[in-house]
Amino acid sequence: MIEELLWGLAVLVLSVAALKIVVFGTVFRHEIKATLERDPAASGPLTVLLTYPGLHALIAYRMAHALHGAGLRFPARVLSQASRFFTGIEIHPGARIGKGLFIDHGMGVVIGETSVLGDNVTLFQGVTLGGTGKDKGKRHPTLGNNVTVGAGAKVLGNIRIGDNVSIGANAVVIRDVPPNSTVVGVPGRIARREGRRTSESADLDHGNLPDPLQQALERLRREVHKIEHELREGHESQERQRERRGDKNAG
Ligand SMILES: CC(C)(COP(=O)(O)OP(=O)(O)OC[C@H]1O[C@@H](n2cnc3c(N)ncnc32)[C@H](O)[C@@H]1OP(=O)(O)O)[C@@H](O)C(=O)NCCC(=O)NCCS
């Protein structure tokens, strides 16, 4: 009797799991395809469905977004925070996300409430689509289609990132970016537009970005050097005057 019950339970669990795989596999086919296309390490649809935190976060987000849209904001937030706990990816239920989003690795990704993402966007770990802390209302970025945001990059404020834009790892973008461009550095500068190097990038040695702290220290060092030099000169001229007075007295 117990054996039959256990078998029944096992069949039920497996059927539910298979059903879930079929349903999620169908509903999220664009995202699974995007992952297989953009991650060379992705070995198959089932692996993506079962082991990719980016996809799990997106599944939870779609449910939370539906709750949010239905006015159930508290359950939506609870679901979004539970998803964050398991995946390390925080997507506000109010964000609007198109088809084919791929979040690689995921940990540390934040997508703010009024963010809008077009189709086929790729986000790497540590990306923030955030506000600047000053504005209310629409305060997060709008990303076009086919945008890639590199690991650790921050895209801040109600700015527009055009279609086919690549944002370099660790860039901090706070201004609009035209389509078909590459943005790198802090603050983000357009290094390439329509496949060509831009004048904005001409003065930017990417391997050796200016460090404001180092520049301030260098200015301070020069000032100290100047003051030392002036003090030494003053001291020497006093010495000379004293010597001259001594010579006169002796004479
Ligand atoms: C920006 C990026 C998308 C390349 O785009 P691209 O259009 O092919 O641009 P290029 O490689 O031709 O680089 C353009 C310029 O930006 C510089 N650059 C590229 N990435 C940069 C970065 N992250 N930070 C600063 N400068 C960077 C290049 O040195 C080049 O400078 P140059 O014109 O003086 O030679 C890529 O470098 C990048 O950062 N991708 C993110 C990948 C990532 O996060 N991977 C994580 C995997 S876990």
How would you describe this protein?
The chain is α/β, with parallel strands linked by helices and 251 residues long. The protein folds into 2 domains: 2-210, UDP N-Acetylglucosamine Acyltransferase, domain 1; 211-251. The chain has helices at residues 2-27, 29-38, 45-51, 53-69, 73-87, 199-202, 212-250, and strands at 89-91, 96-97, 102-103, 109-111, 116-117, 122-123, 128-130, 142-143, 148-149, 154-156, 160-161, 166-167, 172-173, 181-184, 189-193, 196-197. α4 (53-69) runs antiparallel to α5. The protein is elongated and about 125 Å long. The mean pLDDT is 90. The structure holds coenzyme A (COA). Coenzyme A binds at residues 105, 124, 148, 150-151, 166, 168-170, 182, 184-185, 191-192, 197, 201, 206. The site of coenzyme A has 17 residues, from β14 and β15.
Determine the fraction of residues in helical runs and give it as a percent range: 40-55%
Overall form: elongated
> Main sheet?
7 strands, mixed
Query: CATH homologous superfamily of the largest domain?
Result: Hexapeptide repeat proteins
Helix segment tally? 7
Major β-sheet strand ordering: 3-6-9-12-14-15-16
Mean pLDDT: 90
Write the element-wise H/E pattern from the N-terminal end onward. HHHHHEEEEEEEEEEEEEEEEHH
The SS-based structural class is alpha/beta
The CATH topology annotation of the largest domain reads as UDP N-Acetylglucosamine Acyltransferase, domain 1
| Unreliably modeled segments | none
- Tell me the number of strands: 16
Distance between the termini: 128 Å
CATH architectural category of the largest domain: 3 Solenoid
CATH class of the largest domain: Mainly Beta
What compounds sit in this structure? Answer: coenzyme A
Quickly count the domains.
2
Please give the radius of gyration in angstroms: 29 Å
What fraction strand? Answer: 15-25%
